[in-house]
Amino acid sequence: PRIAILISGRGSNMLALIQAAEQAFFPAEIGLVLSNTPHAEGLAIAKAHHIPTHVEDHTLYKKNRQSHEEAIHAVLKQANIELVCLAGYMRMLSDYLVTQWEGKMLNIHPSLLPTFPGLNTHKRALEAGVKIHGCSVHLVTEIMDDGPILGQAAVPVLPDDTEKSLALRVLEQEHKLYPRVIKHFIERASAHPKGEFLLNG
Ligand code: GRF
């Protein structure tokens, strides 16, 4: 299937997926990288890997979240995208896009969900004093950083960790986890006779 990756910034998870898709083991191709801002550093990285990119600038849509998402949806359809992977996409999604891509939209989040949904996960993990932290890949539902968990990776929190050192340790795992989970997700889906992505199939 053709995957679109939605980004807003650095794009290191995007790069991990692009590099996975360049390997023979990966059962999908990256058909599009889409950003909600022209300032996402990841756009240049995608271009360097010859991946088509698109910017759908949310600031042009004033406060109309749905019309921004309708534009995104049209671009995804036009590019024959079958699976959407959020990778550091920092816009909240409304029910519109989530419903269109129900069961076919994944997100990576830098915590062991259901703990620490939302922002500043590493800071909050340090403040809470947890000894194990990590990252999660989950299906996207209407509730932010919720939805069925497809895979997780754990790391230790070390005594002299800073937000930065902990974030780096987790990020390294994110880059391994996301391609692996997507691969399993697609393989399980294609085992189904209709070739559809199933939530519990
Ligand atoms: C990652 O930590 C991801 O889990 C979170 O935002 C960060 C994006 O980093 N959703 P990058 O743009 O993939 O480098």
Task: Please characterize this protein's 3D structure.
The chain has a seven-stranded mixed sheet with strand order 3-2-1-4-5-6-7, sandwiched between helices. The protein has one domain: 3-Layer(aba) Sandwich (Rossmann fold), CATH 3.40.50.170. The longest helix has 28 residues, at about 165-190. The chain contains six helices and seven strands, in the order βαβαβαβαβαββα. Helix content is about 35%, strand content about 20%. With about 200 residues, it is α/β, with parallel strands linked by helices. α1 packs parallel to α6. The structure holds 5-O-phosphono-beta-D-ribofuranosylamine. The site of 5-O-phosphono-beta-D-ribofuranosylamine has 15 residues, from α1, β5 and α6.
Features:
201 residues, alpha/beta, Rossmann fold, 6 helices, binds 5-O-phosphono-beta-D-ribofuranosylamine
Based on Cα principal axes, name the global outline.
Answer: globular
Number of discrete helical segments: 6
- CATH topology-level fold name: Rossmann fold
Q: Can you identify the CATH class?
A: Alpha Beta
**Strand order in space, largest sheet:** 3-2-1-4-5-6-7
Say how many strands there are: 7
Cofactors and ligands: 5-O-phosphono-beta-D-ribofuranosylamine
- Biggest beta sheet summary: 7 strands, mixed
Question: Which percent range fits the helix content?
Answer: 25-40%
- Model regions low in confidence, pLDDT < 50 over at least 5 residues: none
The domain count comes to 1
CATH-scheme architecture: 3-Layer(aba) Sandwich
Which structural class should the secondary elements be placed in? Answer: alpha/beta
Beta-strand portion reads: 15-25%
- End-to-end CA span: 18 Å
- State the order of secondary-structure elements, H for helix, E for strand: EHEHEHEHEHEEH
The CATH homologous superfamily corresponds to Formyl transferase, N-terminal domain
